Structure formats: C-alpha cells, structure tokens
Amino acid sequence: MYTGLVLSGGGARGIAHIGALKALEEHKIDITHIAGTSAGAIVGSLFAAGHSWRSILNFFKEIPIFDYNRYAYNKPGFIDTNKFYKDLLPFFIEDNFRSLKKQLYIPATNLIEGSEIVFNSGELIKPILASAAFPGLFTPVTINNIVYVDGGVLNNFPVEHIKNKCDTTIGVYVNSLQNITKEELKHSYQVANRAYSISFESQCKHKFKEVDILINPKELEKFGMFNLKNIDTIFEIGYEAALKSLEDYNN
Questions:
Q1: Paired sense of beta strands 115-119 and 141-143, if any
Q2: Distance of CA 156 to CAs 48, 180, 189, 199, 237, Å?
Q3: For the chain: N or C, fewer Cβ within 10 A?
Q4: What whole-number distance in Å separates Cα of residue 50 and Cα of residue 45?
Q5: CA distances, 148 to each of 65, 113, 237 (Å)
C-alpha cells in the first residue's frame, strides 16, 4: 500500500509540517511518496532521507536563516540561497534523489519561461533550495543554466504529482485564510502575509478535495511567514491539527 504526503509552502508556518509528521508517526502511518513545495520541500526532503521529526525540528531551530553571513552581494535578493547548501549536505548520504528512502517530488518555478518543473531525480540539494527561494527575499537558484525560484509561485499544493501513485493521500496546508478586521492590517508585513494567504488559497483550495485526509491548521495566518520566534508554538499547532484530522478520518 502506498501513502502519499503533500506539504505546502508557507515559510515559517511550514514548521507545522513537522508537527504533522509526529502525529503520523504516532498513528503508525508509513509514508511512501512525498510532494513538497518551498518549506514543504525542505521538510519533505529531510523526512524522505530518513530523518525523524525531532531531527528536522532541530534543523530549523539551529540554522540561522537571517545571519549576516548569508546576505547576498550583487545578486537579486537579500539572502543568498546557495549559502544554505552546506547546511543541508550533511543530512543526505549523497546529493542525489536516489539516496532517499521515499519517492520525492519537488516543484520549482522556471523564472524565465514562467513554467513549473518537478524535480524527482538527479541532483537533490539545489532543487530543494530552488523550491524554497522566495522571490525578492532569497536569490534565485541556477540549475543547468536555468533560473529557478519558489515552487509556490505556481504550485503551492502539489498533490497532482503523487495522487495517482498512491492508495491514500494526506495533505498538509499551512496557509489557511481566516476572517480578519482592518485593525489587523496595520503593518506592512501583515498586509504581505494576508496577500500571500489570499493568493495561495485561490491557487490551492480546489485541490483540497483531491486528498483523502486534509490537515489545515486554522491558527497559522497570524504568524509571519519569516518570523522564526514561534517555532515551538507552530509545531504544536501542526501536531494538534494533524491528530484531529487523523482521528476524524478514522471515526
């Protein structure tokens, strides 16, 4: 039996994916196929390599994303995405998809042609970085002379890449759109968060019916996409939401 896991993008909210992994472990659900975008690509790749949810959570806690040593110079972005290569390398036996223990599909966006490409074989780490390269903040990643950015630009919930390969598909979406008031839009980052949540919801909502189990934590919109001060809280929200969805499915 094949069980697929779809992990959306969402920046720091993607920590909720790790909480979902804990719940899946407790329910003894063996994942065989993973499709992950952006933060979901990072979490998904580490999980596909055989790392536990604890190890993945520690990775996010220990890697300083906004350290000044990662600033980009003479590149289109504030953070040099390629400087995370050395952080990821020790987590993989080989920088190649064939080293993984689960099938992995990583979407990225071809910035020149405006098209999606899904990586599933060959070089591994650069596609992960490309899928997570949020445009404007992180520099694009060049693979085989093609410039790529965040897979979420075109596909933030890549269920179609594993749906027909699996008997059961579980999706984790971390950009739930909630009702707010105008008083909650006082700062530029709040406006940006809201705008991206609207965009992602419009792009992804019709896909939710394609998964058998949807884990969609409702409380995450209040957390900034790049605010890493609430890692433990976001993790717990993902864990509790996953437990509820799994219990509802089994009842």
A1: unpaired
A2: 19, 23, 20, 10, 20
A3: C
A4: 9
A5: 19, 10, 31
